[in-house]
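Quick one before lunch.
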Amino acid sequence: MEQVVISIGGSVLVPGKDDVDYIKSLAELLLNASAKCKLFVVTGGGRIARYYINLGRDLGIEEQNLDELGIEATRLNAKLLILALGDGAYPKPALDVKEAAQAGNNHKIVVMGGTVPGHTTDAVSAMIAEKIGAQRLVNATNVNGIYDSDPKQNSHAKRFDKMSYDQLKDISSANHDKAGPNVIFDPKGTRIIAREKIPLFVCNGRDLHALKKSILGEEFDGTIVG
Ligand code: UTP
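Model of the uridine 5'-triphosphate complex:
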């Protein structure tokens, strides 16, 4: 059975808009897809993580502890998705990639958030993909692929249907200096998938048709890196 990792941003899972309908439909999609492939889902922290991190920073809390606040938010989102999946998933967020890989031996769907300070859930998704030898990694983000500039700011931005790992490395390290949500896939995660030659499928996670197709490895609306 194919093994697929899905990195789903907090800004996709719980942006505060139609979240109930979306999460219900997402859970149904994942349960159906899990009949065909084993799924490892990594949830981001989104605005809840950002709120706590900014609040903590204003309180003078140091960076490593701010990361821990972020990790807690990613795990809260992971638990929410697990509860929405009912009996279909490993019942708690895996705390690290080792636990996730082990849980995958007995469960069709494993959900986790972050692991340790110093990276984002993109990097975690690449680490679990490496650990289990995933066939592909799906990045369910809030744009429908990778563009040559920010499509929300530039209406002439051009989307890539396909790009190489080196092109993604250039984009992710250039954007990383600015930090924040415009980073399509974090540089650490990019290095791992490039080294392991794991294809990255980037789609709009709120477009459930595109998400389903990319999970199943079929032609989809988005960008393939590989
Ligand atoms: P996210 O992966 O959600 O970061 O982790 P993000 O780039 O804001 O992603 P979106 O918006 O959900 O798509 C939130 C924060 O949690 C900490 C980092 O501080 C990160 O910015 N974190 C997360 C870690 O320190 N380690 C992890 O393994 C995961």
